[in-house]
Amino acid sequence: MRIGREKVVLFATILLFWVLLNGTLALDSLLVGLLASFVITILYRDGFSPFTEFRATPAGFWAAGCFLLYFSKELVRSNLKLAAIVLSPSLPINPGIIKVRTTLKSRMGRLLLANSITLTPGTLTVQLEEEWLYIHWVTVEATDIDSATAQIVAGYETYLEVMYG
Predict the structure, then answer these.
(1) Which pTM was predicted?
(2) What percent of the chain has pLDDT over 90?
C-alpha cells in the first residue's frame, strides 16, 4: 500500500480533531486517537479531507480567511432574517426547492459550498449532482437558475474558487 500525501493529511486531520474534541494529550487518549485515525485512514481510500485539494498559496490562505468572514456574515444575516420570519404573525414564507449551478470543479470545493449553504439558516442543500445543487429555500426569492445562483451560491464561490479551483 502506497502512503501518499492525501493519506497523511487525512490521518493528521482526524487525529487533530480527536485531540481537540477530547481536550487532552493523555497517553491513553492519544493512543486510542492514533489507532482510530489509522483505521479510518486505511478504510477511507480516497483520502478526502478539507486540505486534500486546497491550494496552499498566499492567495488560497487569504481566500480561506475571507471565506470564513463571509460565511460568518451570511450566518448572522440569515439568522436575523429567519428570526424575523418566525416572529412575524403572518409567517411570510414561500418554501420551495430550487436548482442552482456551481462553476467549482473540485470535489472539496463543491462539498464545502453545499455544506455552507446547509449551515446557513433558511437554506438546505438537498442534492449535489455534478455542477447542480438542489436547495430547499424557506423564502424562495428567485425561481430561475441564474438569479438563484447569484443570490445563494456566487458569494461563496468567489472564495472557494481561489481555495480549490
Answers:
(1) 0.70
(2) 49
